[in-house]
Write a structure and sequence with these properties.
- The protein is built from 23 helices and no strands.
- The chain is mainly alpha-helical.
- α6 packs parallel to α8 and α13 runs antiparallel to α15.
- The longest helix has 31 residues.
Length: 490
């Protein structure tokens, strides 16, 4: 009987592809494959999954791999990446969906804003976005936060950009620098970095970066952009959204249907403390694991083994998702069927993300197996280029070309991955952050996020470039400016 081979074992034991020994030809293969991926995504509007698949085949072909093995490394890397990262993306999506549908996001926002004066509104929005940004994907966070931003701007008679930029900065910083978002997760997996250490250092870099790119830059951005017209029915639309969510949260039995008809005030909402505890649970567990590894520093000790188990990303996110079913779902009045439907509906929208991430893993494995990583290691040694700066620059170039932060992160991690082999745990984590920072650089017209922000805030292309694009660039530059000196300390 033949022994089945799992994707993870296959990734670990797969031999490198036969390939050319010429560094020049390897460089040509990389440039042609990346150029093909960029062209397919931007010019021909091909889905990134297909573009990465074709780019991987082209990479192997130009590097001299046998014809019948062009996609062998790709399929190996795809399976290994989906097996490790896909599970975490799925659990994160479930947690985010429960947070959104239960009204937990509004609970966080309403509680913070109720305790904030007009002058501190930008700081409050940055805080709200950062907290909500931990479990939510960027696009979902924007959809949830924009009605809150518009409502706060109207009630507080505050400039829309002055409130909106801090909120967008909070979401973007977390998206690029802090796991369990897809980009940092992929980089952690590709570089074999410690997730807990990456999370801790990511938060350390994220806080000052958010302050500079959020509330501080927001003041300047509102001068550059000028006043934006608020929709006349902002408050009404927000109320309608809340009413619709509230009515939808009720089950179809007669008593609750009657309650919905009489008024939405009877519907429960999750408590602030419970919502915050649920969001922060995976963060605390993963940070606890990282701390135990430093303090106990004995893999055989029972205490460290316990922390290693509960602080592993899969267990931490699984625990948070299960807890959210109680603290968010049941607390909002959802019955078992509604909770099951909510959790299930979270998986459909992330299918594309999982396939893109998996294809990126396949492209990364092809880069490794044809020897590109070893060549880059040799070149960086000759040129005396910092691995952190090199990872950032590569991610910047891919980001500018494709407009995709995820594609930029995946590609850069694949190219500089071998450089992390001899790094300390903290420096490997900083390389993850450097790549994440580069992946956020200068969002412009080839980025879907650019148009999402433009339409939601009713700005022109010029206004979006002056605000959103500059904000993204500030996040990228400030983050790498913090990461480089931090690497001299940790």
């Amino acid at each position: 009987m033949e022994t089945p081979v799992t994707p993870t074992l296959l990734a670990a034991g797969a031999p490198a592809l036969p390939h050319t020994a010429s560094d020049g030809r390897l460089l040509l293969a990389v440039l042609l494959s990346i150029g093909a991926i960029v062209l397919l995504i931007t010019r021909f509007k091909l889905h990134p999954f297909l573009a990465l698949t074709l780019g991987s085949g082209l990479l192997a072909a130009v590097a001299g791999a046998p014809f019948d093995k062009l996609l062998t490394s790709f399929s190996t890397g795809f399976g290994a990446t989906v097996a490790s990262v896909g599970l975490l993306i799925g659990l994160g999506a479930m947690l985010g969906k429960l947070l959104a549908d239960s009204g937990g996001a509004n609970t966080i926002a309403d509680t913070v804003l109720a305790r904030t004066g007009p002058k501190l509104l930008p700081w409050a929005m940055a805080l709200i976005a950062a907290v909500l940004g931990l479990p939510l994907f960027f696009e979902v966070g924007v959809v949830l936060l924009v009605p809150i931003v518009l409502l706060v701007a109207r009630r507080g008679n505050a400039p829309l950009i002055g409130i909106g930029i801090p909120a967008l900065a909070g979401l973007s910083v977390l998206h690029g620098l802090v796991p369990p978002h897809p980009g940092p997760l992929v980089a952690v997996d590709a570089l074999h970095a410690d997730l807990g250490v990456t999370l801790a250092l990511g938060l350390l870099v994220a806080v000052p970066t958010l302050i500079v790119a959020g509330p501080l830059f927001g003041r300047l951005a509102q001068r550059w952009v000028g006043p934006l017209e608020l929709p006349a029915d902002t408050a009404a639309e927000h109320a309608k959204t809340a009413d619709a969510r509230t009515a939808d949260a009720k089950t179809a039995d007669g008593a609750r249907a009657a309650d919905a008809a009489e008024g939405v005030e009877r519907v429960r909402t999750p408590r602030f403390g419970a919502v915050l505890a649920t969001i922060l649970l995976p963060v605390v567990l993963m940070l606890g694991k990282a701390l135990a590894d430093v303090v106990i520093d004995d893999p055989k000790a029972t205490g460290q083994r316990i922390f290693d188990f509960i602080g592993s990303p899969l267990i931490a996110l699984l625990a948070a998702t299960l807890l959210a079913m109680l603290t968010l779902g049941r607390a909002a009045g959802f019955d078992k069927g509604r909770i099951s439907d909510t959790v299930g509906s979270a998986l459909g929208p992330i299918a594309g993300i999982v396939f893109i991430v998996g294809a990126g893993g396949g492209f990364k494995q092809t880069l490794i197996d044809i020897g590109v990583g070893d060549a880059v290691s040799a070149w960086s040694g000759k040129w005396h280029v910092s691995a952190l700066l090199l990872g950032w620059l590569i991610a910047v170039l891919i980001r500018l070309a494709t407009g995709s932060a995820t594609v930029a992160t995946i590609t850069a991690a694949g190219i500089v991955g071998p450089l992390a082999a001899d790094m300390s745990t903290s420096h490997a984590a900083l390389l993850v952050l450097a790549i994440g920072a580069g992946s956020l650089f200068l969002s412009h017209v080839n980025d879907a996020g650019f148009w999402l922000v433009k339409e939601y805030f009713g700005m022109s292309v010029g206004q979006t470039l002056k605000s959103w694009s500059v904000m993204e660039t500030i996040i990228s530059v400030v983050a790498i400016a913090l990461i480089l000196p931090l690497s001299l300390i940790v």
